[in-house]
Amino acid sequence: MSAIGNFQSAAVVPKLVDAPEEWNATVTFGAPAATARVIGREHQYTIRVIFADAPEGTQVFDPQDYTNTIEIRVKDSTLYVYRSITLFWVEYHLAVFDLATRRRVADFLVSPEDMQPTQR
User: Fold this and answer.
1) Average pLDDT of the residues in 35-39
2) pTM for the whole thing?
3) How many beta carbons lie within 10 A of that of residue 19, not counting itself?
4) Could you state, in order of their start, the residue ranges of all structural domains in the chain?
């Protein structure tokens, strides 16, 4: 299955109820089960993954001007971040981050027609 297909079947990482433009959620992955915290804001901000032994966190994607996260999802040990980058035109990207190895696996252009975000 492709990264887009895996994104579409992954569980949505919820935003904060009292701050709907922000994420600060704990995700569970792997066997034995491990946890990480996903933090960030929707507008012009990067998404970070915080591990208990690495409180400084790891960026899921490289920051760029006018980056807006549309949705974050998780499936098994993989975190997906769907975002737009807007300046003179709009590009849509999907970052794929392996929680188990703590590294970015891919970050590529996608067509919004291929994505199915549940939150806007």
Assistant:
1) 97
2) 0.92
3) 11
4) 3-114
